[in-house]
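STRUCTURE REQUEST FORM
Protein name: Phage gp6-like head-tail connector protein
Source organism: Caballeronia cordobensis
Requested output: structure tokens
Priority: standard
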Amino acid sequence: MILDRALAIAHARVDADDPLIDTYLAAAIGEAEEFTNRRFYSTNEEMAQAVLDGTAGDDPMVIEPPIVAAILLIFGRLYAMREDVVTGQAMEMPRGSRSMLQPYRVNMGV
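Status: completed
Returned output:
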């Protein structure tokens, strides 16, 4: 996984044994990748291998600190709000994570 599980646990202050952590962390990474239309990799070597394998997609990149921070914000929201509908709250990507991911977004269409 491109983001250290221990970092996500520390960020959200959650029980390290909670089996939902990996699910929500993967979902947060997926949400960030979908918003930016990119695949993220931990290192240049991992990205190069994915390019060689043909699995990197268009415009892959090595993850940078603002993307890590955005993923942690998304993870925290997913972990804290475990229902699809929360009365009185809109469920969309938080502005903080969106603004951190925006500079990395490619191929947004018309």
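Reviewer notes: The mean pLDDT is 87. The two ends are 32 Å apart (CA to CA).
Form closed.
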